[in-house]
Amino acid sequence: MTLATINWRRDVFSRTMLVCVFTGFASGLPLYALINLLPAWLRSEGVDLKSIGLFALIGLPYTWKFLWSPLMDRYALPLLGRRRGWMLASQLALLASLAVFGLFDPQQDIWSIAGLALTVAFFSASQDIVLDAFRREILSDAELGLGNTVHINAYRLAGLVPGSLSLILADRMPWGSVFVITALFMLPGALMTLMVKEPKLASGSPKTLRQAVVEPFHEFVTRQGWQGALWILGFIFLYKLGDSMATSLATPFYLDMGYAKSQIGLVAKHAGLWPAVIGGLLGGLWMIKLGINRALWAFGVVQVVSILGFAWLASYGRFDSVGAEQLAMLAVVIGFEALGVGLGTAAFVAFIARSTHPAYTATQFALFTSLAAVPRTLANAATGYIVESIGWTSFFFLCTALAIPGMMLLVKVAPWGDDPAPHQA
């Protein structure tokens, strides 16, 4: 089957795409809790921007997850199989650890909170390893664009919980209750894990730990060549750098502009979510006709330009009062940025999935997504210092400039219209 012959109606409403909805929601919830809910909690409790910015370092497990991904490729937990066993274990661990945040006081227990956040990031990164591998193994190469689009849209829908519902609840109940309610939204993913079947690969799982560690890297370099492999790794690192930095302190930015937490929950998060979902779905369908390479070019341009909207909003400075006009401005800016990021992310994740070999999905997918997480972890840790040094407006211009190099690398890694043939397992 080729991209041109896909019956998109059949595929959009297939059981496989429904599974991708659940993998996306389960994957997105803990990350959005760390990057949206946690900073909002800390900022509302009086923690300074520099400290909140440094909390980006808790994302290090996302950067280094390829180190333990071979273990998840090689070994299986009892009862549920190689993929489903690790999926359920990580999901239950996330449910328990997310609920514990509310037991701490940000002013008194900042180091304990940082340690717990690092623990949540570790379990979340581990869940991502196995969910990415599971999704790659149930999708054919022809379904990668649409399947990953569905996953990403559900991923962003998960952000509605910690980024909207939880913020609204935080104005009405104690933070401890908010974190427990947020954690309970891990249950749908756990139920999905119990209901699906373990994927089967003709090539089987690695027979030894050495094979699980060495062969994924050897296969990638052999297939691409050293130069091609370096171009791909550089592209993965740079393509999302600009928008990742631009959104790393999004919630503190909205608060500093004068918006209330409930306004952020009701307006900003919805304005960001639905354009991203619509853009992602359109992007997945467009990728069927465009191919992944053309999508990376077209969607990437929108992604870069959309960051400038934040610079425009920041140029107004803090609002003395927030009325309908200010809320509309925020909704338009965030909606356009979310549309661009939704399109760009759909093509980007499809490219990463396409770059893996079906025999080594967990380790190769973990390596590529770990590299993509480096900017979010290391560069974003400095964003608080950068904002306090140059201000919000200049910061967003800087983010726009940092998005350009990744686009330039498309000439090497994804020439216009030159999509490679599918892998054979």
UniProtKB/TrEMBL annotation:
Q: Spell out the protein name for this chain.
A: AmpG family muropeptide MFS transporter
UniProt cross-references to Pfam families, sorted A to Z: MFS_1 (PF07690)
Transmembrane annotation, as ranges? 12-35, 47-64, 85-104, 176-196, 229-251, 271-288, 295-315, 327-353, 392-411
Report the membrane topology from the UniProt record. Multi-pass membrane protein
Record localization = Membrane
Which keywords does the record carry?
Membrane, Transmembrane, Transmembrane helix, Transport
- Can you name the source organism? Chromobacterium amazonense
What do the Gene Ontology cellular component annotations say?
Answer: membrane
Offer an example of a GO molecular function term for this protein: transmembrane transporter activity
The top of its lineage is: Bacteria, Pseudomonadati, Pseudomonadota, Betaproteobacteria, Neisseriales
* InterPro entries to which the protein is assigned, alphabetical: AmpG_permease/AT-1, MFS, MFS_trans_sf
Recorded hits in Gene3D superfamilies, A to Z, give:
MFS general substrate transporter like domains
